[in-house]
Design brief:
single chain; alpha/beta; Rossmann fold; ten-stranded mixed sheet; two-stranded antiparallel ribbon; 7 helices; 12 strands
Length: 273
Amino acid sequence: MAPPNILLVTKGHPFQRDPFFQMWDALQAEGLLTWTHVEQPAAQLFFHPEISEPYDLIVDYSMPGVFGVGGNPDPPQEFKDNFMAMLELGKPMIMIHHNLCSWPGWEEYAEIVGGRFHYHPGSLRGVDYPDSGWLLAVEHNVSVVDPEHPVTQGIEDGFAIQDELYLAPVFEEDVVPLLRSDWDFNYRNFFSAVEVVDNGRMYSRGDWTHPPTSNLIAWAKNYRNSPIVYIEPGDVPTSYNNPNYRKLVGNAVSWVTSDDAASWARDRNSAKV
């Protein structure tokens, strides 16, 4: 059987391209996948039930709808309709890191991913939130929540990683927890998004506060009939080159493209009807 054929989507947030793509090359060399790269906004054409058909899954590492990249915060209705039709058919997806920030004007996108990072104060599920928090180069330890899940197989419990963390709302009650960080997700341990984006103060809080948030940094979920995995780490090469992180990504690719994941997503979707 041929390995899963991935459509890898980027643009909208800076990243170190060579180390990032080297990770995907390494996973391809292991026979775990093949990959094709497309950038926003051209990538939006592929979020479509027919145009996405040649690809076994979409790995979305892009950040559309923010800072004018890929369109306005709320995408066109045609794009939304095509996206929903694709998920109805069960297209597997993996969202990584800053994809949590995408399409801030489209509330349903947060439901697809399982939460949202707010660059500016916003409302989500009827709750008003301040801008979210961020912290670069965090040295933290990662615990495996569900050691029986296929995505966590072979991952060291308590492994160390250095990466950016977010203080942002997560719909923990609606997802299957996979990994947690031992970091304290309190606003005093993060910096304000508005302070850097609007005021140019890189490491600042001003008078910003934020309620504590979940310490989940990877989860599985479905949306409609699509199995989905979100992985928060993935900002810098210290993640790309971490063997546990590569194992996590490889496992996620294998699981979301499996028959078991497809059946699981369909069953969860049916249970909500």
